[in-house]
Write a structure and sequence with these properties.
It contains 4 helices and 8 strands, in the order αββββαββββαα. It is an alpha+beta fold. The protein has a single domain, classed as Trna Endonuclease, Chain: A, domain 1. A 5-stranded mixed beta sheet has the order 1-2-3-5-6, sandwiched between helices. A 3-stranded antiparallel beta sheet has the order 4-8-7. Strand 2 and strand 3 form a beta hairpin. The radius of gyration is 14 Å and the shape is globular. The chain starts with a helix and ends with a helix.
Length: about 130
């Protein structure tokens, strides 16, 4: 299965999770393909609106380019959305972090599984 296909499946999984919890969510067309859609999902409920960037990895650390995160934050800010990074580590399920919890590695931003567990939230915590 290609990485793009896996990413799409993960996005659909998140959409279902939000929907099952009374939220409305939509995948952003062209996300990850062009500069005009720098997030994967927009989700909302009365009083709470999120821009979500989805990442999954089999490793214990996730790297994200600085340009991608900067574009994501600018987009979320312009749209009045809270930027959230949804991380899926192998056999750990989803963790949701704010960009401020990423660590600067020089060329990229990164977060380890250990740090994501400390600073991240599970879905129930995020949407409550």
């Amino acid at each position: 299965m290609s990485n793009k296909h896996k990413g799409s499946n993960n996005e659909r999984e998140l959409l279902k999770m939000f929907s099952e919890n009374g939220w409305r969510a939509a995948r952003v067309a062209g996300s990850g393909v062009n500069d005009e859609s720098p997030c994967d999902i927009i989700a909302g409920k009365v009083g709470k609106k999120l821009a979500i960037e989805c990442k999954s990895t089999r490793k214990n650390i996730q790297y994200i380019s600085k340009d991608q995160i900067n574009d994501f934050i600018v987009f979320a800010s312009m749209m009045g959305l809270k930027p959230i990074i949804a991380l899926k580590f192998l056999r750990e399920g989803w963790l949701f972090i704010e960009p401020k919890n990423l660590r600067d590695t020089g060329n990229n931003w990164a977060i380890s599984l250990e740090d994501a567990k400390k600073s991240g939230k599970r879905l129930g915590q995020l949407i409550s």
